[in-house]
Amino acid sequence: IPIKFTKWRPAWAFAPDRLEKWLERMEQKGYRLVKVSRRGLRFSFSKGEPRKVCYAADFQKSVESDYFYMHSDRGWYQLFHSSSAFMSWT
Q1: pTM for the complete prediction?
Q2: What is the 3-state secondary structure (H, E, C) of the chain?
């Protein structure tokens, strides 16, 4: 899937609900999230058919070993995970 454009969202961790709504609106316009940069600040999109997709930005202080399996078993697809001393977002 070729990347058409990227958008920067440097302070999204302060309002993850706004990030989720923004990503969902982008999908409704036909812009599919393809990639999130390693630091989670740059979002890359491709153009496709509009669709209804739900996004969730989840913060965990510590991640249990079955955390990712639990969500993937329910049909979730992980696009980003950052685990550091300062933040652990999925």
Answers
A1: 0.77
A2: CCCCEEEECCCHHHCHHHHHHHHHHHHHCCEEEEEECCCCCEEEEEECCCCCCCCCCCECCCCCCCHHHHHHCCCCCCCCCEECCCCEEC
